[in-house]
Amino acid sequence: MEKGDVFALDMRRPEGKGFRITGAAFDPQMLRMERYLEYDDDGEPRARYLFTALEEGATDVLIRMAPEGGGEVDVYRQVTVTVGKGGGWFG
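^ thats the sequence. predicted structure below, dont judge the formating
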């Protein structure tokens, strides 16, 4: 993708396994989070993060989760995003 492009990360929420999404960690110099949305798709709980690419390079986006009853935060999903040279949407 190129600088200025907007993209979404869409995933199933981990609620059925007793967890909840707690947020995302990413490089704010490379990406700007525009929006977070939780929704149901035919009864399947889903989450969508919308980002804008700000700078060229590669960075990981870590989607974090924690047990619904409280406890330690862990990584639920990790996605590598490449902006600019390097081809493709995700590295």
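The first strand starts at residue 6 and ends at 12.
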